[in-house]
Amino acid sequence: MSAVAGDSKVATKQRLIEAAEMLFADEGFDRVSVRDITNKAGANVAAVNYHFGSREGLVAVVMARYINPVTEERLARLDALERRSAGKPLAIEEILEAFIRPFTTQVRRSELSEKLFFKLMGRMFGQQGCELPPLVESLFITMATRFQKAFARSLPGMPADEIWWRMHLMSGAMIHTMAHSDKVQRMSGGEAGNPTTEQTLSRFIRFSAAGMRQGAEEIEAGGEDKPKGPQVEFPF
Q: For residues 24 and 123, what is the distance between their CA atoms, to the nearest angstrom?
C-alpha cells in the first residue's frame, strides 16, 4: 500500500469519526444511521465496517474519545488533591470540582463547539439504551469508586449506599444540565440569563455540595444513623 493510499484511509477514518460526533450530538445515538454518517463524511457505506467493524464499533470509538479523557482527568485531579491533603478529608466542594471541572477543560481540546460537546456528553450518559463500551465502563467504575471513597472520608458516618445514591442523583443533574441548558432559558423567558460555563459550574457545585451534605451534621452529632427521606431512583 502506498503512503498516499494509507493517508487517504486515515483521513477517511477521521472524517467518519468527526461526522459521527456531530450527528450523535445533534440528533442522538438512536436516530443516526450509518448512511447519515457516511453521507456527511463523504465516504461509502462500507467504510464504517472497514474501519470500525460495525456501527457499534464506531459508537465505541466516539465514546472512548470523549469519556476516557474526562475520566482520566478526574482521577488525576483527585490524586493531586489527596496528595496535597496528606490523608485529611477533602472539602466536598473540592471533590465536586475535581469531578466536574474536566468537562470544561476537555471541551477546549475538542473540535466540537462547546454546545455540541456538552450535548454529546449528555447523550452518552443520559440516553436510554446507550451502554458504555467495556473498556470505557471499566475505567469509569474505577473512577466512580475512588470518588465514592473520597466523599465517604469527607462525610463520616454517612452510609455507603446513601453516598452512591447522592452521586447518582448529582450525576443525573449534571447530565441534564449539560444536555439541556438551553431549555431553562426558553422556559424562563430569559429570566435565567445567559450564564458563562464558569458561572454554571459554580452554581452547580454549590447546589451539589448542599445535596451531598444534607443530614451530615445530624450524623456527626450522634443523631440518626441514616438521613431521613426515601431513596428513589430517578430515570435519567
A: 8
